[in-house]
Specification:
Elements (H helix, E strand, L loop, with lengths): L5 E4 L2 H8 L8 E7 L4 E7 L2 H9 L15 E8 L3 H15 L14 E5 L8 E4 L7 E6 L2 H15 L18 H5 L12 H15 L3 H17 L3 H20 L12 E6 L5 E8 L2 E9 L3 H14 L7 H16 L6 E4 L6 H15 L6 H6 L3
Antiparallel strand pairs: 1-4, 2-3, 2-4, 5-6, 5-7, 8-9, 8-11, 9-10
Amino acid sequence: MQFEFTTVVYDRDAFLTATLPSLPKGSAVYKIFDTRGQLIVLDKTSNLFQRLERYFGEHSERVKDLDLREITSRIEFRRTWSPFETTYVLYVQRREHFPKTYRRMRTFRLFKLMKLNRKQRFPRVYASKQIKAGVDYFGPFVTRGQFARLKTSLERTFKLRPCLYNIRGNDPHPDCLYFQMHTCSRPCNDDIGREAYLSDVEAAIGFIQGHDEELAANLMGRISELAAEEKFEEAELLRRQLEKIQRARKESKDKFPSVWGFDYLVLLPSESTTRTKIAFVRSGSIVRFDEFEAAALVEAVPNETARVFSEPYRTVNREWQYDEFCLVANYLVHPLKSVELLKVGAGIDIEEYFRKRAASRKREEPTPVGQEANDSRGI
């Protein structure tokens, strides 16, 4: 992702009087280069004017701050209009300039993910802070307790194995506490086959994402079929399974999306109220960052969204994907009025959403001065 920066040539004699007053007094990401052209400062600020005044203005011995007056050759900055844009631009720039250390410089929180690898013969639940292709990840988990509660609910409800053994089947572990207590389905003892175990994993994945109605409908359908065939014992086992799922939902109310289905439009303010910036988030990755005229949102954005999310998924850097997923998730966990997130997926009519949004914005527009008085006279 490339971002344009405004370049200012530094002249110590004229900077404070001629250049500094023209710089914005708002949020920005800025870069400072020394006389050899080397980047020496890359940071963000809520007020660019004040930050550069502090660097290049008169210094007092009482104030311990950077004195860059003698070594600076140029300054580059990009004005930003929301915390999301500031954080993302800074992240991309640090990733570009410091490819080996940029992750230690992040300014947003990283979240834990729940990992289920169906490539394993008998998958188990892991905690993860990385993403790999072909593996299921769910999140974001804000606390360890939140993760632990859901993990325990999955293992008890769907009898997923909690053990650390490399289970291949026909290799019982009678010394295992879970084996002795029958708290898992004991695939090591061949008490369950791989196909049936993976069916339980699929049900657990549905539970994580909150597809309770679908799970209940499938179980009720199977219970009815077994009852019609007079297989009452098997039907009773499924009924108990349904009760377990309902109890587990009462204990663990949180629902978490899959990283691979983490598709959003992030709507952000721009320099003018007539324009809106949008970040397109696909599978956690910010694949496009663009600006649209507010009047054209209803027509342009649905078409552009369809194009972005229908084209073949390009291979991405998995570290970047995880970082960007966490960056966007921060604004789901701690919403801001300036950052509006719109889920993309089945059942979401984007065109209708923007029509309602435009109508709502129009109603909120202030009445022009003098217009209210004219209206009251019926003019």
